[in-house]
Amino acid sequence: MNIDSIKNGIVLDHITAGKAMEVYESLELAKLDCSVAMIMNVKSNKMGRKDILKIDDDFEVNLDVLGYIDPNISVCIIKDGKVSEKKKLTLPKQIKNIHKCKNPRCITSIEQELDHIFYLADEETQTYRCIYCETKKG
């Protein structure tokens, strides 16, 4: 298998095996007008197996979305064929419009224009709760 290196763009590395498609869809990478390589189930000494996404374009990555999906992802910014910056992620304290509240009595079900906002209630279990009704995201 041969995947070309990228001159300017972003490499998302150390994605938990099987989560690359979720990252692809959440970042809406299909809307980009550039090459995107998805490599899945790559052997990794550190993780056993991992996924990698290579994006041949420099665009604004939503770090909160990535941190929510998988806080272990490494974000490498590539400039002139070399890593110019490497970002480590953490669980975001709050996520906005990534998921919808499933509680039918939540105000977001009635007031359609309201943002769906969840806060990190428990970092250890990665539990998020709706700011309006306290329903656990699930």
From TrEMBL:
<protein>
    <submittedName>
        <fullName>Aspartate carbamoyltransferase regulatory subunit</fullName>
    </submittedName>
</protein>
<dbReference type="Pfam" id="PF01948">
    <property type="entry name" value="PyrI"/>
</dbReference>
<keyword id="KW-0862">Zinc</keyword>
<keyword id="KW-0808">Transferase</keyword>
<dbReference type="InterPro" id="IPR002801">
    <property type="entry name" value="Asp_carbamoylTrfase_reg"/>
</dbReference>
<keyword id="KW-0665">Pyrimidine biosynthesis</keyword>
<dbReference type="GO" id="GO:0009347">
    <property type="term" value="C:aspartate carbamoyltransferase complex"/>
</dbReference>
<dbReference type="InterPro" id="IPR020545">
    <property type="entry name" value="Asp_carbamoyltransf_reg_N"/>
</dbReference>
<feature type="domain" description="Aspartate carbamoyltransferase regulatory subunit N-terminal">
    <location>
        <begin position="1"/>
        <end position="89"/>
    </location>
</feature>
<dbReference type="InterPro" id="IPR020542">
    <property type="entry name" value="Asp_carbamoyltrfase_reg_C"/>
</dbReference>
<feature type="domain" description="Aspartate carbamoyltransferase regulatory subunit C-terminal">
    <location>
        <begin position="94"/>
        <end position="136"/>
    </location>
</feature>
<dbReference type="GO" id="GO:0046872">
    <property type="term" value="F:metal ion binding"/>
</dbReference>
<keyword id="KW-0479">Metal-binding</keyword>
<dbReference type="Pfam" id="PF02748">
    <property type="entry name" value="PyrI_C"/>
</dbReference>
<dbReference type="GO" id="GO:0006207">
    <property type="term" value="P:'de novo' pyrimidine nucleobase biosynthetic process"/>
</dbReference>
<dbReference type="GO" id="GO:0016740">
    <property type="term" value="F:transferase activity"/>
</dbReference>
<dbReference type="InterPro" id="IPR036792">
    <property type="entry name" value="Asp_carbatrfase_reg_C_sf"/>
</dbReference>
<dbReference type="GO" id="GO:0006221">
    <property type="term" value="P:pyrimidine nucleotide biosynthetic process"/>
</dbReference>
<dbReference type="InterPro" id="IPR036793">
    <property type="entry name" value="Asp_carbatrfase_reg_N_sf"/>
</dbReference>
